[in-house]
Each structure stands twice: as C-alpha cells, then as structure tokens.
Amino acid sequence: MRANVSKKTLSEGLGLLERIVPSRSSNPLLTSLKVEAEPRGLTLSGTNLEIDMACFVPAEVDREAAFVVPAHLFAQIVRNLGGELVELSLSGNELSVQSGGSNFKLQIGELGAYPLLSFPTRSDASYDARELARSLASVRYAAATEAFQAVFRGIKIEQLGGRARVVASDGFRLALRDFNAHGETRNLIVPARSADELIRVVRDGEVGVTYGEGTLGITTERVKMNVKLMDGEFPDYERVIPRDVKLRIMLSATALKEAVSRVAVLADKNANNRVEFLVSEGKLQLAAEGDYGRAQDTLQVMQDGSEPAMSLGFNAKYVLDALGPIEGDAELLFSGPTSPAMFKAQGDGGYLAVVVPLRV
Amino acid sequence: MRANVSKKTLSEGLGLLERIVPSRSSNPLLTSLKVEAEPRGLTLSGTNLEIDMACFVPAEVDREAAFVVPAHLFAQIVRNLGGELVELSLSGNELSVQSGGSNFKLQIGELGAYPLLSFPTRSDASYDARELARSLASVRYAAATEAFQAVFRGIKIEQLGGRARVVASDGFRLALRDFNAHGETRNLIVPARSADELIRVVRDGEVGVTYGEGTLGITTERVKMNVKLMDGEFPDYERVIPRDVKLRIMLSATALKEAVSRVAVLADKNANNRVEFLVSEGKLQLAAEGDYGRAQDTLQVMQDGSEPAMSLGFNAKYVLDALGPIEGDAELLFSGPTSPAMFKAQGDGGYLAVVVPLRV
C-alpha cells in the first residue's frame, strides 16, 4: 500500500484522535489507532473505551490495506514533518512515513487483536453543531466531578416540546440550556467527560444523532463517534427550580463577575468562599470576610418584585460558574434568603442556572 | 497615612514582588511585603532569602508611614480593582484599599518583626540591560538542576578583557556568552534560580552593579535587588573547549532544530535520546532508533576542515538546548567522534555551546 496525503489534513485528523486515544494503558493496543486505506482516503479510528472515534482523511491510495500504529508517536511524527505532502507505504511489519528529507519506519501492531469499533450509518435526529456544543459547554460546570452518585457526573439530554434540553447538576446547583433540534430527542445521560470531547470535536455544520443500545452516535462532516451512555435515573431537577420570584435584579454580567471575583479574594476558603449579597434601593452590595480582612463592593442594579430588599449568602465560585455563560446583562431572580436563586441571560430564554444559597 | 496611586503602576510593582515573595512559608512574615510611604511615593520591598527586592511606585502621599501586608493578597486585590486610581489609607491595624465602588480592609502585619532588607546605594559597574538579560538567558539551560555539586547550579560571571562573560555548565555541556561591560566585572557565581528572576526583571536601559559581601547588588530604573552569591570555585571550564577543529559545518539553525526534534521522536528515551550525526559530502544525516522504529533525516550543509567525514552521537535534548539561543545560521565545530563539539551562531562571536558526544 502506498498513500499520498496532505500533511495538514492528516495532522488534523490525528490531532482529533490523539485527544481520545490514551497515551498509556495496561493494554498497549489501546494506545494505537487503526488506519484503513481505501482508494478515496484513510479512515483513522481509535477508542478510550468510553468514546469510539473515526475520522476520514482524503488521500490517494493505490491499494486497500489496514494496519495499527502507535497513535501518539504517529501523530507526533506527522506534526513534525517538514514537507507539505506525506507518503505512507507499508512493507512487511513497518509503516514508512516519508516527507522532504525525512524517512521514518514505524513498527505496526497486530491488526487482528485490535478491538472492533462500530460507527453510526444512519441519523435519527440532527442538531446545529454550534448550538449543541454551546449548550453542552454552558452546563458542563454544574456536573459533579468526584465521589458523587454516578448520574450527577453526567449531562442529561431530553426533549422539551419541539426543542432539546441539556441539564447538569451536582445537587447544589443546576444548569440547563434549551436549543433547536430536528427530529426526536430521546432522554439519555452523556458522561460529562465524553461531553468535553463532543464540545471539542463538534464545531460547525449539522450534527447527526443516532440512538443505539446504550450508546449515542454522533456524525459530523469530519468525524463519527459512538459515545457510551450512563445508566440510571437523572434526578427530578424541575422541583428545585423556584416558581415564586419575590425579587429580581438586572445588571451587567461582566460587572458582577468582576465584583464577585474582587471581594472573593478575602472570602474565607474554609467557609465555602462565602460572599454576601444584599439587595436594596437599586443597589447590590457584596461583602466578604476572612482571616486577612474584609471586602465590600457596591453595584447599581435595576430592581423589581414584591420584596423591597433581601440578603443572601453564596459560594463565590458557584456564582461565577453560573454567570460564566452569560454575556451582556444578567437577570438574578430571588425567591427568599434560603430558596434557590436563578441566574439568566436577559432576553435569552435558553440558559438557566439555579444556585442554592449558603445557610446563615 | 493616605496615598493616591495609579492602579496600573501599583499593580506592576506588586507583580514584580509577587514573583519573589513566597506564597507559603513556615515564617508567615516572609509571605508579606513591606510598604514605605514617603511624600514622592511608595517603596515596596520583599525577599525570598536569596533575593531581596525593592520597587519604587510614584504616589501622592500625605504623611510618612511604613507597614507590612500579605504580598499576594494585596497584589490580587489591586489587580482586580475596577477603577484607575487607588486610595490607600492606614487606620489602626488595617490598611484600607479603595477604588470605584470597592473597599477592602486588609490587616497589616508586625512591622518590627519584618527582616531588615538592604539595597545598593552606589554602582561599581554597569551593563546594558538587554545584553545582560540575553546573556544570562542564553546560558541558563546549561546549569545543573538537582543533586549536582552546588557550583554547577550557578552561573559564573567574570571579566574577560574589556568585556564580561557568563558561563554555565553541568559537566556534560557548557554554554557561555560574552557581552559589553562598563567598569570592573568581578568573578562571582549567581544561583541559576536567582538568574531567572534577574532575566525577568532586567528589561531595558542600564543596569547598575554593586559588589557587596557575598552579594551582588542590581539597580535598574524600576527596581533594586540584592542577590545572594554562591561560594565555591567554578570549575576550569576553558579546558573542555576544544582547540583543534577537524570538521566544520554550517546550516540553518532552525532547519537543524526541526530535523533533530523530528528524528528524536523515535529516539530511545532510555539511551539518552541518542541521535546520530553523520557528516560527509556536504550532507548531515541524522538517525535515531528506538523500540517503535527508526528515523532518518538528511540536510544539506556547507562543510570544511581537515577531515572529510565524521560520525558522532548526541543527546537530542542537549543539541536542541545548545541551538536554542542561535538564530540564523549555526556553525558546528567537531574535533573528533569522542571530543566535545562546539555550537556557535555564525557571525556572532558572543555565544558558544560545548556538548560532549555520547559514547558509542
């Protein structure tokens, strides 16, 4: 087999797979990727056992062949090549990689022992790629990271009227975003770490979605993926969303982020980075206190609602996370000093964050 | 005491000190910095016990005062302020930091317990700041990092005719650079880690140099420093510089760096990342071999000298380090397959690197 391929295209494809394929594993074959050469090009595939990924790279190929190579070494070699065109050729158990004055002979692995990876061949629904990636990225922070119940480490995708919704929660805060879908969205839970890879890979155009047996298939122009889903019941998050708003304030999200970051410098790390929010008379006063001193900041806000004033304590990190995806003006909706508070982007119904205040 | 100071200037000064002052220490006072307020401005000073540093920040001050504050918190607070002007004021044991809608009360430390720092008041010699920083940065890599004899972890500064020279070596390789000096340069050894701070702080203009008792004073427009020197005798490095060059090649430093990086991907990590250099007939052939395969690269070179061909093995990392400071064309001077090789920038007599080849 001989293949001529553009260094840039091959390098981009290898770059995508490099993120998935582990660089170390107790099973060394899993650190490899599979290359299938066909007349139109090369299909590169790899897995981390949570996500299988395949990427097609156009190439001139003289004859069909399939082989397995160390993923990271191959990617590193191609990335460092000097020329613009790469010539791959297979002879015996060596892959030769040639470009400009460089010649590499890379030992290939045992093809028969490589796991069988399968990829979607049809689409059950489709999303706008940017919308899907933005939605997952907006709620990702609210998923739990560690010793929490497994479902809290996932992002739920569900149908909501004619739209799709992604939801994440760690029990202390919740984030959701609605976005447009074409076709049926089924309820499922994607591991948050696999969602990170989706966010990276899914860039623009349309994303095809395929429902499998405990898997979600994803098809983009460049890439096909099969993502293992999580079992279990996602908690009934709707009941933590307060219905009865008593005080609403509106202000620049950036100004609030900066002020919270500022006062949080002196907040007590051992008391949940507590920052006090005191709303009254069109002002939001932030205050924090710790071992080294006290901090106070005052912001002008637009204010309405049935209560004229309210005082709540928040974990500064949770407030900053909730504000993260909000550009322009933010809307903060309070239902009482101990009830969950809501953070929204003004004029954008898609994103909602819910943060439980700290106890007094 | 009340002081009005520009946020930008104060933040820059604190940023310089933040690099020196440790963020944790068994003696919490050492994580603080001292502020001396005088009519013309504030002098900020701090130490890591290896380097003492003082930085002057112009300010409007109503009355003299001196106090000690937690360095990193103070720097973080000032950096995050929204306004352009900062008002500092002292009342009781609190420093108030005010700007825009923000107000911080920071507890001050015990001034009497803070170590006495001294700074140079005269200059014995002077260097061009860029030249000094560039020279130190060029040889820094060759200093030893760990369990080596202490002097190998330092950079020697010495007089050489009318110029100054910096030298570093870990016993396997050596780097030196000569640069212009005004006045007498004394032989001394600066700890490599303190040299890193000098490289960062010394930017442009003239640098005044002061010889103290086991210390080197440094004065720039913004900053004064006192650097603790290393004791001991720097090894006689001159004798490893080969006098008898048998083969010389010239080629683009960038092309050589890229080719060495390329073939090194397959070099054996357990055999010093060995890369073979084979020079003959106007060509430099690089080759490496490891568990995963073999790599070869060929570069055109200009070649002269008494020997028509030579083959040497090098640690790829040492070659890349030696080439690091060289821009444009590089000159490689070989004295034999087991003799130290020299790397120079063509047409720039200042920099010289010496690398000992690996044994066969």
Automatic annotation (TrEMBL), chains A, B:
Matching InterPro entries: DNA_clamp_sf, DNA_polIII_beta, DNA_polIII_beta_C, DNA_polIII_beta_cen, DNA_polIII_beta_N
BP term (GO), one: DNA strand elongation involved in DNA replication
Cellular compartment(s): Cytoplasm
Keyword Signal set for record: no
DNA polymerase III beta sliding clamp C-terminal domain: residues covered: 239-359
MF terms (GO), sorted A to Z: 3'-5' exonuclease activity; DNA binding; DNA-directed DNA polymerase activity
Keywords: Cytoplasm, DNA replication, DNA-binding, DNA-directed DNA polymerase, Nucleotidyltransferase, Transferase
Keyword DNA-binding: yes
Domain (DNA polymerase III beta sliding clamp N-terminal) ranges: 2-117
GO terms for cellular component: cytoplasm; DNA polymerase III complex
Main location: cytoplasm
Residue stretches making up the DNA polymerase III beta sliding clamp central domain: 130-236
Pfam families hit by this protein: DNA_pol3_beta, DNA_pol3_beta_2, DNA_pol3_beta_3
Domain of life: Bacteria
PANTHER family, sorted: BETA SLIDING CLAMP (PTHR30478:SF0), DNA POLYMERASE III SUBUNIT BETA (PTHR30478)
Quaternary data: Forms a ring-shaped head-to-tail homodimer around DNA.
Annotated function: Confers DNA tethering and processivity to DNA polymerases and other proteins. Acts as a clamp, forming a ring around DNA (a reaction catalyzed by the clamp-loading complex) which diffuses in an ATP-independent manner freely and bidirectionally along dsDNA. Initially characterized for its ability to contact the catalytic subunit of DNA polymerase III (Pol III), a complex, multichain enzyme responsible for most of the replicative synthesis in bacteria; Pol III exhibits 3'-5' exonuclease proofreading activity.
Family: Belongs to the beta sliding clamp family.
UniProt-recorded name of the protein: Beta sliding clamp
Annotated organism of origin: Deinococcus peraridilitoris (strain DSM 19664 / LMG 22246 / CIP 109416 / KR-200)
